Amino acid sequence: MVTNITISKPIFDFLGSLEKNNNREWFEEHKSTFQTHQSEVKSFFEAVKESLSHHDEIEKMKMFRIYRDVRFSKDKTPYKSHFGGSFSRLGAHLRGGYYIHLKPGGSLLATGFWAPNKEDLFRIRKELEMDASEFRKVINQKELKSIWGELSGDELKTAPKGFDKEHPDIDLIRKKQFVFVRNLTDKEVLSPSFLNEVDSSFKAIRPYFDLMSDILTTNLNGESIL
Questions:
Q1: Which of 132, 122, 118 is nearest to 170 (CA)?
Q2: Choosing a second label site near 61 at 20 to 30 A (CA), which of 32, 87, 170, 195?
Q3: H/E/C letters for each residue in the chain?
Q4: Is there a contact between 132 and 172 (Cβ–Cβ < 8 Å)?
Q5: d(CA 26, CA 119)
Q6: Does pTM top 0.85 for this prediction?
Q7: Residue 123, C-beta contacts closer than 8 angstroms, at least 6 positions apart
Q8: What distance in Å separates the CA atoms of residue 41 and residue 35, rounded to the nearest whole number?
Q9: What are the pLDDT tens digits along the chain (226 aa)?
Q10: Which residues lie closer than 8 Å to 19 by C-beta, 6 or more apart?
Q11: Contact of 81 with 20, CB cutoff 8 Å
Q12: Of 140, 187, 216, nearest to 6 (Cα)?
């Protein structure tokens, strides 16, 4: 694994200044600095993808643009004050993804299923309705929980249509997202070992991904649908 690629303090210094000076005039004056830091962060994300490839199959890495879409937002500031990158797992047989958010005082890692389509969401809920014991066992594994904490994500206030609101596993069934989030301190992000920390954190989520891949590629009888 490449270990000498880091997130440097000047990157965070720039993002902090951008948050205080979020206007086009300031950004244009500092665009060359932005481009330098953007390139550094992209190299870091590419190193993360390379590390992930040793224990997972990644279809693509995407680095998000710094420019905000303000058309439907009350916040009209033109730029994001963070760098973000996502890593999509390969094809229909794996699913899910990883995400890195770099922001002074607000960095995080995230992983799981942000926006499962209607069919996938129904399939996950039916699995949990039938038997959620294996799912609970996986998300409560000691190593996974010590790094990622509790399963999170948006959820309904009541039961989805067609599901019993008194079901013993309704706390899982009503979820619309199935994600884990790990908040990071600036010290952790700026550490020389951050790349290794990212990789080990993502590696620890693998039992959860293996279970979800199995659920989403089979029917309720356990027969492959691919």
A1: 132
A2: 32
A3: CCCCCCCCHHHHHHHHHHHHCCCHHHHHHCHHHHHHHHHHHHHHHHHHHHHHCCCCCEEEEEECCCECCCCCCCCCCCECCCEEEEEEECHHHHCCEEEEEECCCCEEEEEEECCCCHHHHHHHHHHHHHCCHHHHHHHCCHHHHHHHCCCECCECCCCCCCCCCCCCCHHHHCECCEEEEEEECHHHHCCCCHHHHHHHHHHHCHHHHHHHHHHHCECCCCCECC
A4: yes
A5: 46
A6: yes
A7: 215, 216
A8: 10
A9: 456 799 999 999 999 999 999 999 999 999 999 999 999 999 999 999 999 999 999 999 999 999 998 888 888 899 999 999 999 999 788 889 999 999 999 999 999 999 999 999 999 999 999 999 999 999 999 999 999 999 999 999 999 999 999 999 999 999 999 999 999 999 999 999 999 999 999 999 999 999 999 999 999 988 998 8
A10: 81, 104
A11: no
A12: 187
Tokens describing residue 197: 């920390």
Q: Identify residue 33 by its one-letter amino acid code.
A: T
CA distances from 17 to 32, 42, 103, 104, 143 (A): 14, 20, 12, 10, 37
CA atoms within 13 Å, Cβ hemisphere of 88: 11
